[in-house]
Amino acid sequence: MTASPSQTRAWAWLIMSLSARIILGTTAVAVLWSVVPVAFGWTSVVVVSGSMGPRVRAGDVAIASPIEAAEVRPGQPLLVENPSEPGRLLLHRVIRRNTDGSLVTKGDANSVEDSTPVPPEAVRGLPRLLVRWIGLPVHWYGQREYPKVWITGAVAVLLSMLAAKRLDEDTDENEGAEQTAASVADADTQEIVYDFSDGTLLPRPAAVPAAPQQDPDTVSARHTHGPPRGGRHTVAGSHRANRSRGRHRRRHRLTR
Is the pTM of this model over 0.85? Predict the structure, then answer.
């Protein structure tokens, strides 16, 4: 059975709307994962470089829990205030601890250690969660890649429109069209009644209304007055005429 164009269109809208809702829902959950921990004293930061690649990429969001500098061990990734660029955060791995308590860090993708050690008071947290790609628009905006930001916004608006599409509008129209077609088909279809009297399921035609009965007086009067106008004879009158001719021929032979 082939689907009608209206059904195909309804299915296409359904698939697109559900896909848009899934994408927007996943994005909303990722944003919540990135923001909600801040209310509990954690630190959320967008990675803006590939110095910790390939595990951590630009555009990822790292979420770090508070930690004391004395608890940090070599080999752990650490979120610190960048000693080389005040006012910015740095996510690198701890290589070793100096005698004065400062920490030497290095990016996984870098070939050399960071030039400036991190003082203990600059430690902000230990990364616990990593949300992929959710911070890409922020990263693109910081890099002045504005066309990518505009495209992302346009895609978000389009997905919102698809997700807000009311599916029952097309469904109501399709149901109305199908009901109209079904009523037309029923009008052109002979009525069938199923007979259950003998234990079987057999279709039988619907009852046909009986013809109106004629008055006996009218019928006898019609035969009494003879054949109708125009020279037409009834069947009974023709038989009587043939019998009269036969008797006349037999008398003629006997006379001879």
Answer: no
